[in-house]
User: Fold this.
Amino acid sequence: MLSIAEEKAWDIRNLAWNKTAGSVATDGVYMKTELTIKGEKHYLKLSNYDSYRGIFGHESVNELIAGRLGEMLGFNVPAGTLRRSLVSIEGIEHEAYVFVAKSYKTTESRVAFEDFYIDYRLSNEESPLDLCKRFGWGAEINKMFIFDYLIINRDRHGANLEVLKNDRKRLSPLFDNGLSFACSCVDEEDLETFDIMEDRPVNCFIGAKRLERNLGLIDKKVEFAAIQESDEDKLFEGLHGVLPGRYFAIIWEIIWKRWQNVKKFRA
Assistant:
């Protein structure tokens, strides 16, 4: 099996990209676009970008790994693929890795969770978490707390979760997971000082502003699959050469050690 790094570059230089402002621990923007593939809408995402450095960082790779981890746990996280691609931004061509995921949206209307909360809260005293429990979404939010803790997700703000509506209301999958793992590390030197267990402040609309504190809010009865040491190879399959191997070693250490902490909270 070819590594993604060895595959022929996908030429999508014809696509126009939309800028999304960076958030916590970022200093650039993230490029997104849409593409219909075999009759189905897909979303495409690049890593960080600015007009001087071009495309940099590894958020698109993080998206793929987070999706694979979510699938292992049985969580509602969009699966996708990573493609080595040729893209054009502001008239300049780049070779970069693009995360590609099929749209989870059907005929339902969608609204950012924060807007839904404003419209449907019983009073200013009802927290976003309490509203979720009232709508029967408690187990899904518990899984979100666990997932975001495992991947060190910095950015579950009020629009990085949606409510999908038709004759009923449901939560969207957990999308936009690129600001995670060791995304703040620009090189291997940074990795050596990265504290994988630090309880960092994060931009989280539901629950606490620190990931570990959210573990204390979960219902210990919520059920999900377990992570096994043998999952490491499956998690990084096809990614040889996409990033230096030290990044993958740190990402696995993040997942495995934090998984041990999740088990302690559930004991």
